[in-house]
Specification:
The chain is mostly beta strands and about 375 residues long. Helices cover about 15% and strands about 40% of the residues. The longest helix has 24 residues.
Length: about 375
């Protein structure tokens, strides 16, 4: 028996050796995975004092079949509508709490981040087109699609300050949404945090060299904003005003998953969407660029499962201290979470509906 196993292992090794050697020697012109920066942590993750690990059991579906890939959420309290961008190019709105779905406007691209404008319109980060404004009359206007001569490839997160300045991210100037996984596997900083001044039409780059720049949320006192870096599993604070203007500092690091959108709920908490949980598989991918190159090459021909599970959200204080967490092993790519009244709504890149959790019935109750 032992001799048979040894022969089997030798045979497998003989087959795999040329493959491994070929991968090692082959360097695709458009893909070069890098080692993770030294500050990337493989140590213990931050945890919240209250955790609901069965979020799917607590969830009910809203607008099922009408909302393909609802990525981010914006709430119009006056009108009672939730706005979300869908995979088919439509921005749709959902009545709260009724759940009726209405086609609102098609951008012609792939709307991701959404936030209400002061005039009742909507600012949209469209992955395919750029930063858009949709007027209350549903007129779509392109605000900007490039900065410093570099076109956006994946316009992603967005928020608006009280003075009308729009803050947004380009997740990558190299890879578009269809190839976002290649950006993650390459682990090179192609992302940027930017601002757009609607009075002057000027687009400014605030922070460069970000590892998949994602969600943005302006602080309630308007002095800073929080932005997420998906690959680095962290969110940082950028100072808009004051003595620290233009500087970046830590907000929360070593999250238990890969952050996507972030939203302030008006009640002292930021909600950070975790599109997937940290796993041993992802630790190995991050640690070894060779393995990432192998996955990238194989993925060109065969769909490789990327272990996207344990998605969820973490609520944190204005200082970045964890408060509560919602997750589920069966939940994947849940990208936008928003608290509205007693409900916690969330969307997903892969489902055709919004979900919501009644926080008054959850074991990880929001109220302290």
């Amino acid at each position: 028996m032992a001799a048979g196993l040894r022969c089997l292992f030798k045979a497998v090794a003989l087959v795999l050796a040329p493959v491994v050697l070929g991968v090692a020697l082959y360097n695709p012109a458009d893909f070069s995975p890098a080692p993770m920066p030294p500050e990337y942590s493989y140590g213990p993750v931050v945890s919240a004092p209250r955790h609901e690990p069965r979020a799917l059991e607590r969830s009910e579906r809203v607008g099922e079949g009408r909302l393909p890939g609802p990525e981010d959420l914006a709430y119009d309290a006056a009108g009672g509508w939730l706005y979300t961008g869908c995979a088919d190019g439509w921005v749709r709105r959902v009545s709260v709490p009724g759940g009726d779905v209405e086609d609102w406007v098609s951008t012609g691209g792939r709307p991701l981040g959404v936030v209400l404008a002061a005039d009742g319109g909507l600012i949209v980060a469209d992955a395919d087109i750029g930063l858009l404004k949709v007027s209350p009359e549903k007129k779509v206007e392109l605000l900007t699609d490039a900065a410093e001569g570099v076109k956006f490839a994946l316009t992603d997160g967005v928020d608006v300050a009280a003075d009308g300045t729009i803050y947004f991210t380009d997740a990558s100037y190299k890879y578009n949404l269809a190839n976002y996984m290649a950006d993650i596997l390459e682990a090179r900083p192609h992302g940027r945090l930017m601002s757009f001044d609607p009075d002057t039409g000027r687009t400014a780059v605030l922070v460069r060299d970000l590892y998949v720049a994602n969600g943005v949320a302006v602080s309630p006192d308007q002095s800073s904003l929080i932005y997420c870096e998906t690959v680095m599993r962290r969110c940082s604070r950028y100072h808009i005003t004051g003595n620290k203007k233009g500087t970046v500092e830590k907000f929360i690091e070593n999250l238990p998953g890969f952050p996507d959108n972030i939203r302030y709920d008006g009640e002292g908490r930021y909600w950070i969407a975790l599109s997937a949980g940290r796993t041993l598989q992802w630790d190995l991918l991050m640690k070894y660029p060779f393995v990432r190159k192998l996955v990238y090459l194989v993925d060109k021909f065969v769909a490789v499962p990327h272990g996207l599970k344990n998605s969820g959200a973490m609520s944190v204080t204005l200082d970045g201290e964890p408060v509560s967490m919602y997750s589920d092993p069966g939940l994947a790519v849940a990208t936008g979470w928003l608290k509205v009244g007693k409900y916690l709504y969330y969307g997903s890149l892969t489902e055709t509906y919004l979900s919501r959790i009644d926080l008054t019935e959850s074991s990880a109750k929001f109220h302290e």
